[in-house]
Write a structure and sequence with these properties.
- This protein has 3 domains: 227 residues, FAD/NAD(P)-binding domain, CATH 3.50.50.60; 149 residues, D-Amino Acid Oxidase, subunit A, domain 2 (D-Amino Acid Oxidase, Chain A, domain 2); 172 residues, Phenol hydroxylase, C-terminal dimerisation domain (Glutaredoxin), CATH 3.40.30.
- By secondary structure, it is an alpha+beta fold.
- The chain has 14 helices and 29 strands.
- Bound molecules: flavin-adenine dinucleotide.
- Flavin-adenine dinucleotide (FAD) binds next to helix 1, strand 2, strand 9, strand 17 and helix 7.
């Protein structure tokens, strides 16, 4: 974390100075905004937290509720989401408060005849997948962290509560072509209509999205017909794995998923309530908390369950559905104009809660879109960048739905009849295998963006095999040269909309002017084709658009900042202070990053990383022209 470059300020450095004009907060809702975000669920708050970093643009967030969510809904936080929280500076807080899902157990009908017994126990996240654990925290807390981040950002962004979007119309002309009708849901003016014009609108307004309906976007998929009771409780039980995530299948076919929760006492039960008649619209409302507890007791038998306090409960019954597009551009128009309205999260994909993906994938939708809107609105990228949102996220949503179908079927399957094993069903070992095979997906690491304008080809992948193009940048431990601090390389990247260029040096030392690394840095510093020169505005800090990090092969005690090219010691801010935090060496107390991530030691490698932490390209240190060409498609020149 770096601060004070523009002068010392007492107080909490997480509360950053307000942008000009935001000293007294964001003010009343204006009639015209750059981006209007509808909804403050996981998708909306991540998007808004990212947009809050761009204080030059006007973002507003409307929410029909009277205030922030207090309890309930999702709670599973995949490792990938914790990595993203790190970029917002929120991971430490999150992992401190959360329950850590280290192991998962599987229970099935007891071989002896009655009751249930443990049939398996597995490590929840495979070794080496992430430096962060899989954790559990209430969705309300996840949102609260991000809302605080927004409030403390230079934009001082806060939701406007009590405003419901009722209609969105995209016009042809003008600077603010999208008109949104809002209705006040509370206060003396409840029912009053307000109109806001926006350059862009994002519907993060959940499964019944009004924005989606306004755009005429259809959801396709299976109808809802299977109900699950979900209940957060404080309870007394003699079930021994109550503090472990446990998937339990009873002899009668009922099943429970137990999710221990943050704080050491709270626990969530997902209880299978069976099929409901799709024609019976009121079926869901007839379930009671007592019926859910009763079903749970039967499945847990012979273990006891005494519920002392029901904190939150709901009957959750969602089919697997996917929107046919994630923005307002019709198939026939695609390529002729760029989108103005988007939908994200449950507004475009719904699925069961069993794989714990709803909140995670929704947040990743918001993270994917936020930096792109910032780049386009700040004039750094063409509007065509926004076409990549639907192209990238629709594929991920389809994969989510396919996986969810597999996992929720496994969870709901009846046990196999030993006398008739071909008659269907699934035994506990088979269910455990589905869980283990899906580990990469549930941890959030199955995303592989295909080649497009922001994701290059894999032609140079052999130079850095451990950083697959299209996948998230997989962090590894290093030592920061200037102060010998062991750090994670991936944690140096904040959610600030900047591109990262990680230059892994060839074998020559840092002071060797003939090395490929030295030549690459000279290209970035002074060649007219250098992306840094072309796209960084005059007068801005040298790393304002591209954050360049150097990783050398030599141990940190064998060289010093005096050996570094000046380009890796940029002078910044009003005082022209030196940024000493750009250069790293392998951590002698951890596996060497060059070996761990398969970097070619002779040639070195350049790993280009998008603002949302995905690897955009792997190139050689001498691929100067290829690097310049790659960014030509993504960026608009900042200098004549
Ligand atoms: P949401 O979280 O639904 O957020 C949408 C937001 O938009 C809400 O704050 C809503 O008030 C607001 N909004 C809606 N319409 C408008 C409008 N027209 N104008 C302004 N604001 C609007 N997932 C699990 O993993 N486990 C669970 O047990 C679980 N239970 C759930 C129970 C319920 C009742 C719901 C609704 C969802 C549950 N989910 C659960 C799903 C999970 O919460 C979602 O996948 C996730 O929240 C999706 O995030 P989102 O931001 O897309 O939408």
């Amino acid at each position: 974390m770096q601060f004070y470059s523009d002068g010392y300020r007492p107080g909490d450095p997480d509360v950053r100075p307000p942008a000009p004009g935001r000293e007294n907060g964001q003010g009343p809702l204006p009639e015209e905004v750059d981006v209007l975000v509808v909804g403050t669920g996981p998708a909306g708050v991540v998007l808004a937290a990212q947009l809050a970093e761009f204080s030059g643009i006007t973002t507003r967030v409307v929410e029909r509720r009277e205030g922030p969510l207090a309890k309930g809904q999702a709670d599973g936080v995949a490792c990938r989401t914790v990595e993203m929280f790190e970029a917002f500076g929120l991971a430490d807080k999150l992992v401190r408060e959360a329950y850590w899902v280290n192991e998962t157990t599987f229970w099935g009908p007891a071989a002896a005849g009655t009751g249930i017994e443990r049939t398996g126990r597995v490590q929840d996240v495979a070794d080496g997948l992430s430096e962060y654990p899989h954790v559990i925290v209430n969705q309300a807390r996840m949102q609260a962290y991000l809302l605080e981040h927004m409030r403390n950002s230079p934009a001082r962004l806060e939701p406007d509560y009590g405003l419901e979007a009722t209609g969105v119309v995209v016009g042809d002309e003008g600077e603010y072509p999208v008109t949104v009708t809002l209705r006040r849901t509370e206060g003396p003016d409840a029912g009053e209509e307000v109109t806001v014009r926006a350059k862009y609108v994002v519907g993060c307004d959940g499964a019944r999205s009004a924005v989606r309906k306004s755009l005429g976007i259809q959801l396709h998929g299976d109808a809802r017909n299977h109900a699950w009771g979900v209940m957060d409780v404080l309870a007394v039980t003699d079930f021994p794995d109550i503090r472990l995530k446990s998937a339990i299948q009873s002899a009668t076919g009922g099943s429970i998923l137990i999710i221990p929760r943050e704080g050491g006492y709270l626990v969530r039960f997902y209880v299978d309530l069976g099929d409901v008649d799709p024609a019976d619209r009121g079926a869901r409302d007839r379930f009671t908390p007592e019926a859910i507890i009763d079903a749970a007791r039967k499945i847990l038998d012979p273990y006891t369950l005494e519920v002392q306090d029901i904190v939150w409960w709901s009957v959750y019954e969602v089919g697997q559905r996917l929107a046919d597009r994630f923005d307002d551009v019709l198939p026939a128009e695609r390529g002729s104009r760029s989108p103005r309205v988007f939908i994200a999260g449950d507004a475009c994909h719904t699925h069961s809660a069993k794989a714990g993906q709803g909140m995670n994938v929704s947040m990743q939708d918001g993270f994917n879109l936020g930096w792109k809107l910032g780049a386009v609105l700040e004039g750094r990228s063409p509007a065509s960048l926004l076409d990549t949102y639907t192209a990238e996220r629709q594929v991920i949503a389809q994969q989510l739905i396919d996986f969810d179908l597999l996992w929720s079927s496994a969870m709901a399957a009846k046990p196999k009849d030993p006398a008739n094993p071909d008659a269907g069903g699934m035994d506990a070992a088979e269910r455990q295998a589905v869980f283990t095979q899906g580990g990469r997906f549930t941890a959030g690491f199955a995303t592989e963006y295909a080649e497009n304008m922001i994701t290059g080809s894999a032609a140079h992948q052999h130079l850095a095999k451990g950083f697959p193009v299209g996948e998230r940048f997989h962090s590894a431990p290093v030592v920061r040269l200037a102060d010998a601090k062991p750090v994670e390389l991936g944690h140096q990247a904040q959610a600030d909309g900047r591109w990262r260029l990680y230059a892994f040096a060839d074998a020559a030392g840092p002071s060797d002017a003939e090395s490929a690394m030295a030549a690459f840095l000279r290209f970035l510093e002074s060649d007219p084709a250098s992306p840094v020169l072309r796209y960084t505005p005059e007068g801005a800090d040298p790393d304002a658009v591209f954050d360049i990090r150097g990783v050398y092969q030599q141990g940190h005690r064998f060289f010093s900042v005096a050996d570094l090219p000046a380009f890796l010691l940029p002078r910044k801010g009003p005082f022209g202070l030196t940024d000493y935090e750009k250069v790293f060496a392998p951590d002698p107390k951890a596996p060497d990053i060059f070996d761990e991530r398969g970097i070619d030691r002779a040639a070195g490698a350049l790993v280009v990383v998008r603002p949302d932490q995905y690897v955009a390209h792997v190139l050689g240190l001498n691929s100067h022209a290829e690097l310049a060409e790659f960014f030509e498609g993504i960026m608009l020149p900042a200098r004549p």
